[in-house]
Design brief:
By secondary structure, the protein is α+β, with helices and mostly antiparallel strands.
Length: 278
């Protein structure tokens, strides 16, 4: 019996050793030749980006309008600002990190440039679809999207008060439908159709919101999102593609610098940018 336990322990130790060696090999491969101390001395945006592109794996195919992300190791990424908007977004992320009153549902920042030119952050595996978001969070994505926009429009104190508002709107729509149902004039028929459409949209919304309030996991997730909304995070950084899971299996937002202030200063000229992913 003792021999069996010793064998099992030996096998377990060997597996751990092999895993550690593989991880170290991956980290070395990911940043082979990359000198972080040298990188810190680079004084221009082109110099930083060119150096990183030569020696690191680029993530996201450089699609960000303001920053580019590179894999620095198995668990860390390097985000480099491409312009002033990128610097502003980095500084916004640092503000979130420094504010201890905000419940954490975003990636940690391990190291940063005091001028906001770059940060080293926790690596996550991004969600690739609305379906994956729904599976991982338990929240239907279309409902989530509608919920965010409703919170932005109605600005409730919490989710319970939002339910009260939605139920009130649902009751009002139903009363109007009853009132207009027997009317025959064209104007009343148009209004009736509008209220019926409102009712058909609100009824499933109220049903899903009630279910969310009964789920501790979903409720806590959305309360953290509301906290970020109250502090100015825009929808552009709250879509499914800005979420992912870290090595611990935690669901986190990995880009959270697109705040209202950043939007107004750098993107307001193009209204379509407000709902984009950065």
């Amino acid at each position: 019996m003792a021999t069996k336990k010793l064998l099992e322990q030996f096998i377990l130790n060997e597996v751990k050793k092999a895993f550690k060696e593989a991880q170290e090999k991956e980290e070395k491969k990911a940043s082979s030749g990359f000198d972080f101390n040298f990188f810190k001395t680079l004084g221009t945006i082109p110099a930083r980006l060119n150096y990183a592109k030569k020696l690191l794996e680029q993530l996201g195919a450089g699609l960000g309008s303001s920053r580019e992300t590179f894999k620095l190791s198995a668990n860390r990424v390097l985000k480099i600002a491409k312009n002033e908007a990128g610097v502003a977004q980095t500084e916004a992320e640092l503000e979130f990190i420094r504010n201890n009153s905000i419940p954490r549902n975003f990636t940690t920042i391990e190291e940063f440039d005091p001028k906001g030119n770059w940060i080293v952050a926790e690596l996550v595996k991004p969600f690739e679809s609305e379906r994956e978001f729904a599976i991982e969070t338990g929240i239907n994505y279309q409902f989530y999207e509608n919920l965010i926009k409703t919170i932005q429009d109605r600005k409730p104190q919490n989710l319970q008060s939002l339910l009260f508002i939605a139920e009130h709107d649902l009751e009002e729509a139903n009363n109007k439908i009853i009132e207009l149902k027997d009317a025959e004039d064209f104007k009343s028929q148009v209004a009736l159709q509008d209220y019926e459409d409102t009712f058909s949209e609100l009824e499933p919304f109220v049903h899903r919101l009630k279910a969310l309030l009964k789920s501790k996991t979903q409720y806590n997730f959305m309360m953290k999102i509301m906290n970020l909304l109250e502090r100015g995070l825009e929808w552009g950084d709250l879509g499914f593609s800005h979420f992912g899971k870290n090595s611990k299996g935690e669901i986190l937002i990995y880009d959270y610098g697109f705040t209202t202030d950043v939007y107004k200063k750098y993107y307001k000229a193009s209204s379509s940018d407000r709902d984009s992913n950065y």
